[in-house]
Each structure stands twice: as C-alpha cells, then as structure tokens.
Amino acid sequence: MFLSIFDIFKIGIGPSSSHTMGPMLAAGRFLELLRNSAFTAKGLRCSLHGSLAFTGKGHATDRAVILGLAGFRPENFDNDRAEQALKEIAGTGRIHPPGLAELQFHPERDLIFDHDHPLPGHANALILSALDSGGDVILQETYYSVGGGFVLTEAELASDHGPELPRDVPFPFRNATEMVEMAEKAGKSVAALKWENEVSAHAHPELSNWIHKIWDVMNACIDRGLSTDGILPGGLGVRRRAHAMHKALQAERGQNLTAPHIVNDWISVYAIAVNEENAAGGQIVTAPTNGAAGVVPAVIRYWLDHVPGAQVSRVADFLLVAAAIGGIIKQNASISGAEVGCQGEVGSAAAMAAAGLCQVLGGSPRQVENAAEIALEHHLGMTCDPIRGLVQAPCIERNALGAIKAVSAASLAMRGDGQHLIPLDACVETMRQTGLDMSERYKETSLGGLAVNVPNC
After folding, report:
1. What is the DSSP string of 341-390?
2. For residue 21, what is the DSSP state?
3. If you average pLDDT over residues 8-28, what whole number do you get?
4. Where exactly does CATH 3.30.1330.90 map onto the chain?
5. Can you identify the CATH homologous superfamily of domain 14-158?
6. Which residue in 20, 324, 278 sits closest to 149, CA to CA?
7. What per-residue confidence (pLDDT) applies to 257?
8. pLDDT above 70 coverage of the chain, percent
C-alpha cells in the first residue's frame, strides 16, 4: 500500500492520534455508513475496548467520539463550538449529526468503557451502533484505531489494507533496502524519490502548498507552546515548562558563558512546546502520532534556527524523507503505542527526524538509512506507560530526548560513509517482534511501569 506524506503527517488535535483523532474519524465514518443505509435510526451507542477503555478518559476518547458523532472533524476543529455542542448533548441526551435526523445519545449511558472484553483485531477498538425506537441494534460496525490517525473497519483490518490509495508510483519501495537501491540506481536522493511518488498521486501545486502547510502548522504549534504558561489539564498538575525555558535560553544568548551542550536545551524546548500543546488539546500534526508529535518539528526548528546554511525552502525535503521512513515503519511494523509500546511512537519519530536531518545536511541515501537505523535502534524496547492515561508524563520529556537522539543519529551517520552493521529493515523487524513479546501492561494501558509506580498518581 502506498502511504503518502499526508498519511504520515495529518493536521489534527491533541492529545492522541489513536485515542482522540482516530475515534473521532471512526464516528464520522459511521455517520456516513448510516446516511448511506436504508435504516431509520432513533439512537446511537458506542463501546470502547482495550486501550481505548483503559486510557480513554485521559486521552479524551469519550469527548472525541461524542464530537465525531456530532459531525466534528480533526482538521477543522473549533474548540468553542465543540464545548457548546458537548454541553447541549449532555443536557438534552440528543445529538444532531449532519445529514441525519436528531438522535438519542446519553453520554453516561450510551458511551461504554468496556474493560472486560478486548477485541482481537487491535488494542484500540470501538464498536458503533445505530438503534431503533425500541433500543435494538439495526446497524453496527467495529473500528480499529491503529495509530497515527489511521482507522480501519474490522473487514479492512482482516484484509490487511485500508481504503485504496494510489499504487502506480514510479518508485514503489516497500522497505529501506529497496528505497536505497532505487535511489542509487536512479541517481536520486531519497527526497527526490519520495517527491516523484507523491507527484504521481497529487497535483504539483497542491503538493507543494500542502507540504508547506504541514510545516506552518508545526511551526505555529511550537510558537504557541513557547508563549503559553499554566497547568496542563487532566489532574496531574503538570506545569508547562516551555515558556519559562525559552525565556531563560533567550536571556542567555550572547553572554559567551553558555556551555556547548546547552544546544540540547534548545532542541528540547521546541519538542516540549509541541507536546504541551498536544496535551492541552491544541492543533498539532501527527508525526507520526500525536504522542510523538514534537520530535520532527523540534529537529526542523533546531536546524533552521541553529545550523548555518539552513533554508526554509528545504523543509519539504526533510518532511518527504521523514514520511518515507515513517511509511516503511508503519507498513512493516507499527507506529502505535498500544500495539508495540513507545518504541513505535517516539522511536519511529526519532528515526524519521534523523533521516530528514541527514537529508538536508547533504547525506547520501545510505547515510539517510543509517541515520534512521541509529535513532530507532536506541529506542527499542521502550514501553508506553502514561501516568493516568494522560499524554504528559513521561511522554512530553520523551519527545525532547527523542529529538536529541535524532540529531545525534544524523550527525553520527554523516561522519560515516553509509556502511554499517545493522540494516534499518532488521531494526524495524526487531521492533515488531519486541512489540509482540511486550506485556500488554506496557502498551498504553496505564497498567504498568511509571503509571503504577509514581506515588499519588
């Protein structure tokens, strides 16, 4: 399956691509199914299973489903309208989906957190049902939110593909080995390979505009995070740090007293800014998920602000290469924390960012592949254990460290000639196997790790 740059980078809302965006999109798909059916529904019901049940409250899954059933979409989300809609639905027990008659929906009764019946297809599962006047089910569909905002029905998951995407691309690489071989044979960079694949699926002006839009949203998210103070929602009392950190770093500039390693703090503050915005439910870009959304933009901003010769015009090359790596990982392993742990989220994001940075630093296809491998290898085995199911601790700092690792990985790859012992494909397969072996307690359920060992949480 061809995965476009727009499948890897989606404009959406926080705090989670799998637990917030995915369920909202699933609800939208169910409304469309209901509109195209011959049934006349009187009510709606949703049950959440697996990780969506265990950590759905902390990830605002309940809120996302309700708003999705009311017609809201992540890409054009209006928070003020959303809050008003939630109040009306809670007060009336009625919901007004666009293109359908008013339907009964009592959130306390019709949105069920089912902790006892995980579904076999994926850890992030929800069942949406339409009911007749007697409360009997007349239409039902099971959806799986498989990470990064991707949503599959039960049938799509069983057939191992989602909605059809363009397949006739000039460079149909399925893994990193094929990517490097095709690039070297064609005498092209990885960015050029990915660009030609994208051009075959999108009109050229649209492609350029949308890639720039992706970076504009990422950069605006960094700026909002750097300028906003306060306490993050959710009850943990986590204070935003990016604003104060940024002010201190700005004050230290030009004093000639700063140690060289302080550049790591600049990389960190950009990532923290994004993930604080994500935790607050702000607009972000999946990269490849919400929980790992800070790594790629932080490395791009570091490159632009701190590396001589960096040019905004080359951000597209960075994002194209990052998307190529993200697509390889998704197709051959997973980018879902509920499926393989945080190695699939921050680990994948670090690999994407390392490859993108290596590309804009002038790296060859082999060096780009090496950079991605180094970054991913040193996230293998990382668990996903969010405290209280909130994408705050340890998630925010993990993005900062993932960005630092990405920069280091790109730098190491640039010091070599691309020849290395462990191929990226072997590392991706290792991540997949490790995820299969990992206990469910450490895969976004908040039933193990830091989630149960931090006092008072």
Report:
1. -GGGTHHHHHHHHHHHHHHHTT--HHHHHHHHHHHHHTTTT--B--GGG-
2. I
3. 94
4. 14-158
5. D-3-phosphoglycerate dehydrogenase; domain 3 (3.30.1330.90)
6. 20
7. 67
8. 97
DSSP 145: E
Q: Strand locations in 132-227, DSSP E?
A: 137-147, 150-153
> Which residue is it, tokens 């969506």?
52
Structure token pair of residue 410: 């790109």
Evaluated on CA atoms 47, 52, 56, 61, the torsion sign reads negative
The whole model's pTM is what? 0.91
β 137-147/150-153 pair status: antiparallel
Of 65-79, 90-104, 229-243, 297-311, the least confident: 65-79
Task: Note the Cα 321 to chain centre separation in Å.
Answer: 17
Domain(s) labelled CATH 1.10.4100 in the chain stretch across: 176-200+202-453
The CA-atom distances, in angstroms, between 232 and each of 25, 83, 325, 423 are 25, 18, 32, 40
Question: Average pLDDT for residues 113-135, to the nearest whole number?
Answer: 95
Residue the block writes with tokens 């996903």: 384
Residue 410 has pLDDT above 70, yes or no: yes
Q: Does domain 176-200+202-453 have CATH number 3.30.300?
A: no
Q: How many CB atoms lie within 10 A of CB 326?
A: 29
Span 379-408, pLDDT tens digits: 999 999 999 999 999 999 999 999 999 999
List, for residues 165-196, the tens digit of each pLDDT value: 446 899 999 999 999 999 999 999 999 999 99
